[in-house]
Queue: 4 jobs
Job 1
Amino acid sequence: MKANQNYKNIAQSYLFSTIAKKVNEFSQKNPDKKIIKLGIGDVTLPLCRAVVDALKSASDEMGVKETFHGYGPEQGYNFLKEEIQKYYQDNKVNLDIDEIFISDGAKSDIGNILDLFDKDNKVLVPDPVYPVYVDTNTMAGREIEFIDANAQNNFLPMPDNNIKADIIYLCSPNNPTGAVYNKEQLKQWVDFANKNNAIILFDAAYECFITDSNLPRSIFEIEGAKTCAIEFCSFSKMAGFTGTRCGWTVVPKTLEFDDMNLNKMWLRRQTTKFNGVPYIVQKGAQAVFSEEGKKQIKENLNYYKENAKMISEVLTKHNIWHIGGKHSPYIWLKCPNDMNSWDFFDYLLENIQIVGTPGAGFGKNGEKYFRLTSFGSKENTKEAVERLDKFLN
Amino acid sequence: MKANQNYKNIAQSYLFSTIAKKVNEFSQKNPDKKIIKLGIGDVTLPLCRAVVDALKSASDEMGVKETFHGYGPEQGYNFLKEEIQKYYQDNKVNLDIDEIFISDGAKSDIGNILDLFDKDNKVLVPDPVYPVYVDTNTMAGREIEFIDANAQNNFLPMPDNNIKADIIYLCSPNNPTGAVYNKEQLKQWVDFANKNNAIILFDAAYECFITDSNLPRSIFEIEGAKTCAIEFCSFSKMAGFTGTRCGWTVVPKTLEFDDMNLNKMWLRRQTTKFNGVPYIVQKGAQAVFSEEGKKQIKENLNYYKENAKMISEVLTKHNIWHIGGKHSPYIWLKCPNDMNSWDFFDYLLENIQIVGTPGAGFGKNGEKYFRLTSFGSKENTKEAVERLDKFLN
């Protein structure tokens, strides 16, 4: 048997392990100093009441013969797909129920969707970037090209005629930068893809943080997207499902390349290589859309947004260039005094015991930048902001 | 973008849709006749008490900040991996904790494991067969060869020197035939794989039905398997998790091909393209191994086994050749009077309203055979057996 040799080309990322090591060493030397972690990419608030109640009630159903659920539809139960359909309708996007596929999270589907594409497609990925786009394509042996996201383009790279790409990754609101495309910008990408027979893989995992109704929360708000885009979304950040695992993928029925229909192909892929999301988890996700659920998750999102606002305000006060934080849980800042991002990491840790994520860990354009997140507790975030304020004076 | 052209070569299976259509037509014409379905491949008993309690208590944990669980380890929590490790130890198989990967079911991992292999490997699949082995490799463009399972070899094909294969699928207890390899037979496969630098993908999803301690429940009971085999297992049939989604995959650390370590590759694959099984589901699965859990799932397994025994007994009484049913929920029988399997399907439906699965749907060697399952209710199975007894007289 010959193993997949492409695995030899996957870069090893030491970003988070290096951070953990540095934090560990510091706290062993300074056991009395309180470290505040603003590098967390995971939610910290618990599941809301409505979701917990739904999970428990579905668990009870599973314990009774008459209401027990065995194998479900691989693409998800209609009761959940209909709620997602309505969620898009409220945003003026009409989807057919068969265009929505329930997933166990955006990460799985972003990886698995590549099964539908030939190996010899050229991939375009913005830099800095969520590492999964690059690693999954490297595993499959695809050629990857990067497009620069930087201060000149506000970390929102745009297409131009020099770009040759078959598969284009866009993430908006962006991880790690928090930058958000407006409709005109996304329209340029959609037009580019349609013109060049390319497909856009649109990662909308952070759409729930968008409050400005002029900003697109779905690529399907853009005319023409249904012939060139697949969208990935998730309950992870929206409702704290990072450990509960549920999301969805939208594959339009009109998405065809050389007479091959991607909606039918994805259905075939999922029915063959996936067995659906647990019934109880889908019932929990359904509760996110109930009246109480909607109210409760909004409270949680507002909690994180308040944190983001506090961080953004102190940076503004001290004239530190930054984006994100408004329609995103991430704040992306330029390290002061032209510092390198790992130096700034050490500097913050040593002096005021705040831990963030060095931008260099997300790609070459991340160098001299730094990511803070709003997923900490309000108390800790407040304390961190006070430390920053004093220190930056 | 060029779509994956291999999808054009996937066979469309109309097996279960054709069955559903025939049953529908019959019941519309004969609304007063009670149809008994013995074709079901899904469990029908609810989750046991211990599991439901664990799911509910884990749901409560998720609703409280102090006990909330966000992203977990992609390869599963140690609390569950340790229980599985013990389950193997009780069976005299020693596994390192890092050799066990928690999955959302055997089907996903049986499909996804192919990411680790080069496209140009030759695949060997027994016929008749669970269609997933064939379809997943067809999607990836691999060449597939079949090995005949038939009455001559008791539906347990053995290796010989004419076979050229890099990836070998074995399923024992078998779906659809219920045939079980003994240790000597599996040893021949393990030796063959080691000698020919091949890998065995061992589907052990039905191991819990084995009661004879001389029959191997895991391929790792066989000396040499840790250098040539990956094993897939599931809580689906063991504990009724078909709609709750949990299983595990064992990838030995000693599994190396050309200096590439498959355990490390699988860890890398899973951390990149998977985000783990829901915390609550893993807590539910853990409860399967509690004292009450073990007792309760045994009761359920015995319930299905009793059904299988009834079916097997009536076939024996009427001299109908069959295998399975003893260490498997499936009974595989030779259609009487040399009938074709779809003719026998119609014959049973028309005359005594029993629905089974025509063997021809599982491959060419399934022709003239028929699958019955023990997943119905005891009452229905008993009634079906009475009808069969009368009819076969």
Job 2
Amino acid sequence: MSEIKDITSRDKDFAAWYTDVVKKAGLVDYSSVKGSMIICPYGYAIWENMQKILDEKFKETGHENVQMPMFIPESLLNIEKEHVKGFAPEVAWVTQGGSECLEERLCVRPTSEVLFCDYYKKIIKSYRDLPKLYNQWCTIVRWEKTTRPFLRSREILWQEGHTMHATEEEAIAETLRMLHIYEDFQRNDLAIPVIVGKKTEKEKFAGAVASYSLEAMMYDGVALQNGTSHYFGDGFAASFGIQFLDKDNTLKTPYQTSWGVTTRMIGALIMVHGDDRGLVLPPNIAPTKVMIIPIGDHDKVRTVTDKITSELNTKGISYQIDDRDKTPGFKFAEAEIKGYPVRIEIGARDLESDEITVVRRDTLEKIKYPVSEVVDHLPELFENIQKNMYDKALQRRDSMIYEANTWDEFTNIAKYKPGFIKANWCGDETCENKIKDEFSMKSRCLIEDEEIHTNCVVCGKKAKYRLYFGRQY
Amino acid sequence: MSEIKDITSRDKDFAAWYTDVVKKAGLVDYSSVKGSMIICPYGYAIWENMQKILDEKFKETGHENVQMPMFIPESLLNIEKEHVKGFAPEVAWVTQGGSECLEERLCVRPTSEVLFCDYYKKIIKSYRDLPKLYNQWCTIVRWEKTTRPFLRSREILWQEGHTMHATEEEAIAETLRMLHIYEDFQRNDLAIPVIVGKKTEKEKFAGAVASYSLEAMMYDGVALQNGTSHYFGDGFAASFGIQFLDKDNTLKTPYQTSWGVTTRMIGALIMVHGDDRGLVLPPNIAPTKVMIIPIGDHDKVRTVTDKITSELNTKGISYQIDDRDKTPGFKFAEAEIKGYPVRIEIGARDLESDEITVVRRDTLEKIKYPVSEVVDHLPELFENIQKNMYDKALQRRDSMIYEANTWDEFTNIAKYKPGFIKANWCGDETCENKIKDEFSMKSRCLIEDEEIHTNCVVCGKKAKYRLYFGRQY
């Protein structure tokens, strides 16, 4: 199998392995447009499944989809000072429309807080107009210098929720509610364990009071920030002059949140679950749960293939049949590259004893089932695969989380052991920066449920916080 | 009802009526970004329903969704000469990324033919790679000078299919297949009768061999081009140097199509079906099929409301309950503005005789049903509404299609009767232009199923074609 031979071993060169997998599994392709990628049908189908599950959760919790403009006039971007500082250096500017030069340049939205605020200012007048729970699915642009498929790209497909609330409590509850919807989705559907927590002041979103993130650990021990939920307080709302008449007949400024996840989650799927044979997709998110590979040109094989597909249709299990003119070996290898949760091999020899071989992608285990039972076994098998993938990822991640109480301990781990380090911190940005400068490790998020016994791992002064540190994509 | 009073009569000022309806029904709102609109939750929910139905049809016919870059480098746009001539004057140009000026300016895609061609050149090598049946849902930008919600906007939400085929026959068949998928969708789901046909050379898409369009007539007799399907021959493919090794071992150039529909279809829904009370939505596309309005604060009303909603849930019929602290009259009027196909009034007085009032939005007819039967009647009622809306639209349209055999006849109709004119044409662009210049009427499309008896309606020379003419949005 030339394709498999061409996949770099992930333990040898993880970056090359990643590029091989995204390309050979048919997830993305490169375009002639620098910094922009093409999302191929298989990659896009994964994104559609993510959208479907999340969109349902958003709607169940009362959110409505809207579509805002994709351009932001410079003067609008400039209204919130912290925000513009954070984003202006990395936006694309439209300066010409048709043959005319624009009087004011427009940036292609890097995120849409200011567009939503501009709209909310217009439509929020009374407590009766609150909460506003809006979301949009769209593409944003950030002018990145170096790009990698799904992880860092000039164009990003994402969703961004933007909500406004009458009270601080309600807005904070919304921030955490959406954080936990993401967490459940990533755990249950993507089979990716995530650490959720508050970002430090230095790492929070430009303009936010508090940013919460979902931190996943990739196979190589490097962190991927896999979604964020921000509480804005009334900062943006005040800058934009948004006010509502409350029940007590006084004018108040509403409280705001925003939250988003992107196609980056596809990168996480690859880097958490993939192996040297290619992609491994959890059944809950796989566009095709079963790849059927009929072996040989026998009537019996055809009859059984028809029987199996008709049962899969009845049960609503997604499948494809690989009946191309290729060897079974080629097809098995390709099914592995594509990461279909299960492949079913239907061959004349097995059928002599009325059996069919099912191969799990996660363990590569081969299981023989009687023809009449195979489809009945699948739902349970999918559950097992889903659970096994999560457990395996959790185990690997936990085995790569270390604890450092002194600078020496921190240095030793940071130098030689990939993964996350738990450590105490005084809260001073100088200490946070030292870790970043020496080891390229950023604070991931605060740990709020563990007691602080020791002092700051950097300066030795009294610690105020406990943190995860890690290198990041 | 202040909202209703504020809707201009459609017979008095159709343009003002349209603006009132899109705004008061909560479909769109204006933004501070010139030329870009905000699609509000209700408008976006209609678009999501359109997407859902069409996307399923695309997938059933073997198409796959992808996502291409949103930027096109100028050199790439320049490759196909006709195409660039058609689009370059109306694109938005990105000239700065972050703090640097770009070496080559990038346009925000006005359509993606060249991006798909650039990609197809890379992935099409053999007849085995064909056909390629790709589609994408995205936003495009055209730098329009004057804009109107849904009809003409700088940003347009749409889908664009781009396919490549080994033979001319297959590509032509695809062009027509997609045209007819659009036609069925508009007839059956939007309840909009459409005339489908080929555009003249003058009116075809920049770079196409043949363009087919769906021409709908609005209430005011003005045409709306409500979707197009293009056959490109091998023009783009040759310009881009796309070649494949065919079965006969020779290198050939593939044949191409593209096809698209946009949120403009929402504009058509409004202008075909709406009335002086607001929007009227066909049940097949309405985000909320039933608005329930409980009247008064009685136990019985609450019990029956619960019973009805539980039955609606079981049957999977979408509904909302308007239990706000407003008068029934206000709620009825708002339900009419929003165009819900059916409203159910649950009031204590009706319940005394165990009845419920159902009001059809299309006819405003009030029907009383026994409580136990009301939900059972709904599916048939929806079918009737859907059919009635189509029939009514068809009747109005047909009553506004005229036939002109001489220039005098044409002039008389064009001056005094809004609608379409069927006429014969010699095929000379001078004659087509004369109609455009004198009456602002463009050729809509060729009529291929009617015989040509008379001469060109403009010059009197021998006619080659029969055409629809009409003013357009």
Job 3
Amino acid sequence: MTNGLRGGIDLGGAKVQAVVVDQEHRPLGTARGATPREGGPPAIAEAMTQALGEAARDAGVELSALQGVGACSPGDVDEATGVVTNAANLNGWAGVSFPLAEELGRRLGTTVRVGNDVNMATLGEFRLGAAKPYDSVLGVFWGTGVGGGLILDGKPWTGRGGAGEIGHTVVERHGRRCPCGNHGCMEAYAGRGAMERAAREAHEHGRKTRLFKLMEERGRDRLTSGLWERALDHGDKVAEELMDDAVDALGTAIGSAVNLLDVPAVVLGGGMGIRFAPRVRDDLQRHMLEHLFNKDDPPALLVAELGDLGGAIGAALLVLEGQGSDAAAPAPAT
Amino acid sequence: MTNGLRGGIDLGGAKVQAVVVDQEHRPLGTARGATPREGGPPAIAEAMTQALGEAARDAGVELSALQGVGACSPGDVDEATGVVTNAANLNGWAGVSFPLAEELGRRLGTTVRVGNDVNMATLGEFRLGAAKPYDSVLGVFWGTGVGGGLILDGKPWTGRGGAGEIGHTVVERHGRRCPCGNHGCMEAYAGRGAMERAAREAHEHGRKTRLFKLMEERGRDRLTSGLWERALDHGDKVAEELMDDAVDALGTAIGSAVNLLDVPAVVLGGGMGIRFAPRVRDDLQRHMLEHLFNKDDPPALLVAELGDLGGAIGAALLVLEGQGSDAAAPAPAT
């Protein structure tokens, strides 16, 4: 006797995206809010609650009509308990554990399950998006950092809870320092954050670039993917070089991962991935192929189809799938 | 009414190792032969047959008393059909398919199953050796090249048949050419074959090294792992530098693999791995840790326990486990 409506909330470093979906996973209502930069985890949980409330109003339904809510978060997510630890990019959450599922459940008056953000986005693409035809997939989410998710033989592979860190595949063992502190990680070349630092260094060393002028003109405090796109459209050499290097690093790390796992498909997502896929997909494929041990049968290189809503729609799957760690399990009756 | 005796044959580039094991996987008899350098796959199948015959005599049993035989081979192994394709290092087998299981079965008068060599060695360590306490493991077999095998949640992970190529994890994206033709693979720094080439180049460029003098004195045509050990014992600088670089590359690639898969254990095997583990294990651990994203809970770094017999004992497991691709399946009655 359920209407099959579910809520999904994607907690990101900059924004909270909420969605209400129907039985066919179609978004009936959406809402977006800024991730609070003060107040710590309780303020963030409140912003997530507000966003889902708005999405429900947008869909024209009551929160109490939802069958359940799934959320996804950065950091170390214990999917069994819904506790999120060390979501280092979020205010007040570095080195801290917070019972996110319980807090959201109390505020929303419903059962909430919480999963890891890139795992949920990968699951969304696997179940509903670009990777639907495949039984295994590597998800690569290219944004400020580069996250990864794995589905092997229909089931999320999370290892001991920390698998999927393709951004920290080494591409140059004595190379550039990564935001994580190690050297030569793919993210040190491909992450939007690392690209911005490299652009700033080039600028400080006298290289001409429009990037920071564009940033000022637009009143932004960071080089967004949109600003990178504008600079590339203007033929900015620094932007071109850094983008080429980022795509080289991405393709190299994907090649290494495919050599190890031999998955039939790779899905590229994330803010940078979705924006730049049309422009860089061929180069990415070329760099991946350069490093494949077996070049005869490369994996399909796909682009995420669920777009900005992928994390939230993927998270809403948690309501149907029980534990996020076992996507193949049938849904318990709720 | 079976005695539980099984045969195992490990086909390598230089040698064939055969074993007869009892129900407890203990070797009752062993034999070793050279891998034929002419005559192609039929001659190689005959040498494998001879070696198993000798192992049976060594064990004091008739071949007809064996419950079955498992074999393992380099190249692309179709475990369902026992056909081996493109075992490029073997005489007459490059680009060629050969029904190895069928040919061995005809010669031996018993059912033969064939698996991939590193997968079987990994399975052996997982079921019977160093990785017994774990439910997932990455096997790293360091020899002339560097092969890898994966067991995830108790089952071999072979992807579309070609998984496990950790030797072709990139460690320097614009780096040294690998025997596989790509650039910057770990094997290009760590494989015994690549190390020999690098030593030869250093020697030709005027670096002093005892390596090639030792090779002549011992009447060898290649730098065996034993020769590397002697050179290191003599404090040979070229050997030390190349070994340090090899261990750095191995640790880097293992770190990348652990970041992606978060397995609880890594087993180091292979001729080089077993010989040099006591000497390099700490450095290997250090290089792996340098590249781990999560340094709090590194995987156990284990050394293969089944030694030279690991491949053959692992292959003999195929008799019990049905398809090599599903180690968790119960044995069918035979």
Job 4
Amino acid sequence: MPGTVYVDPLHRVAVAGGTHGNEMSGVFLVKHWLKHSSQLERDTVSAVPLLSNPKASEKGVRYYEKDLNRCFTLDILSAPDSPDDPYEVLRAKEINRLLGPRGSANAYDMILDLHNTTSNMGVCLIVSRVHNAVEMHACQYIQTHLPHYNPRIYVYAKPGTDLYSVDSVAKCGLGFELGPQPQGVVRADILQKMKTVIEMTLDFINHLNKGMEFPAFETDTYQCSGQVDFPRSSDGEISAVIHPSLQDKDFSLLHPGDLIFLTLDGQSIPYSGEKPIYPVFINEAAYYEKKIAFILAEKIRVSVPALRRQTH
Amino acid sequence: MPGTVYVDPLHRVAVAGGTHGNEMSGVFLVKHWLKHSSQLERDTVSAVPLLSNPKASEKGVRYYEKDLNRCFTLDILSAPDSPDDPYEVLRAKEINRLLGPRGSANAYDMILDLHNTTSNMGVCLIVSRVHNAVEMHACQYIQTHLPHYNPRIYVYAKPGTDLYSVDSVAKCGLGFELGPQPQGVVRADILQKMKTVIEMTLDFINHLNKGMEFPAFETDTYQCSGQVDFPRSSDGEISAVIHPSLQDKDFSLLHPGDLIFLTLDGQSIPYSGEKPIYPVFINEAAYYEKKIAFILAEKIRVSVPALRRQTH
């Protein structure tokens, strides 16, 4: 177990919603906070609301030309502008100028990015990796203070791959993936949970900035290890759907032989993996075009060192 | 109670899916039936599967330029072609040539049109009006044979208004509105229910064609009587969402004073109508742009005469 990590206070914080324009909790909350910005203020930090993808939010679609939340790679951000750039590439570069540049000393201290999923993910906290103590302590703070939400930590980036999400522009980033909620719909229950977890995260930042020490801890994380496509016929069309016994069972252990797909003629298809694994993002609407029926995650326990503000 | 209605047998029947391209049960079923058309065959009828809006289904959106299921008015269908016609107007005219023309002797005998909703509508059977004995007996047959689905009959057209839905092209039409299901998602449970109700409807047509007599009956219908928009601030933005106590309560009696909306600051807004009413299509994603938070329906009991095939 390493010793205490000391960090500079976090003063420049952004709350992004509408990164996907049909994930309505974030769109709705950010529009609300743009009018009532004092609700994002704490003693030591005033978070800035950002409507990440105005054009997609206006149209009520995930994206206008390209998935914005895959556009923040170093390759895309550093490429010269081109008249053929999709809207979202231009917008990613703009956000990178506003809140970054990514990887620089000038970058924002933290971006909180708000998402919804049609999957039964509950309150899911997303980090890119497990090495950032601020991000991990923010998750722990939320888990400790909102145990009835049963928040889980999902780690999206595989080792050796570049990051691509909007929150990677800042020094620290946290995604909030709340579901189930249909695209294009605001549900009051999900909205209230999202508002509460963001308020809780700002409280955490405020405590950190004021000098509170956060002790070391261990926690379970769910780390992306693969993905499963739908069965398809020779023409590429989906030939079987998520099995009723898998539907809505995100974060429930899946064993080899458990049923995962069902054809229209009633044939059940079992999971053929070699070991038990945790399925997540089961039947997420936006992943059909990405050829993902669900994502596989391994449950990995990690140790996080104590955290405290740097005192110069 | 009127006497028996005698009708010609129904031989030309179409099953339409993808009228809205992101309502996936119908898209999925029609694509399946296009490959396995024998599943739509009965002794006396072979129903034809039709992907109503191929372009919207391909893109996974409700519509490409205009809501197809509002394009089948006599005004639109009879207007001369124009180079400015939206894709869906052209497609409506094409479907009208294929399965109509609407109101003519050449028109198809029946169109069954498959829809999904994000609202908790369960298995909802939609007729335009209550005067068509074939449509009403089809509903009764489904209700009698699938009581565990608790199918309800919704009447969409107000008196004196023109029809606009795809099934109005045929002599008889029936819409199937199954939910809750997010846009862009296929859920196995909803898919199985939709497949079963369509199979049941084809059985009904087959029995009718073969001479079975269907006795007169009375049934409850839910008839559209109005709609309620979300509360909005002066800039037109939605300022309150569906109240948790109303969410998912489609077809449950709403009383004056019951809470219907909730603001982000926790203020509850009651229903200010003068009499109890049945809310339906509560929080349907596609109705946000139509400025509909939910639809109001009156429960009206109707008498339906006996039905039998014409014997010449």
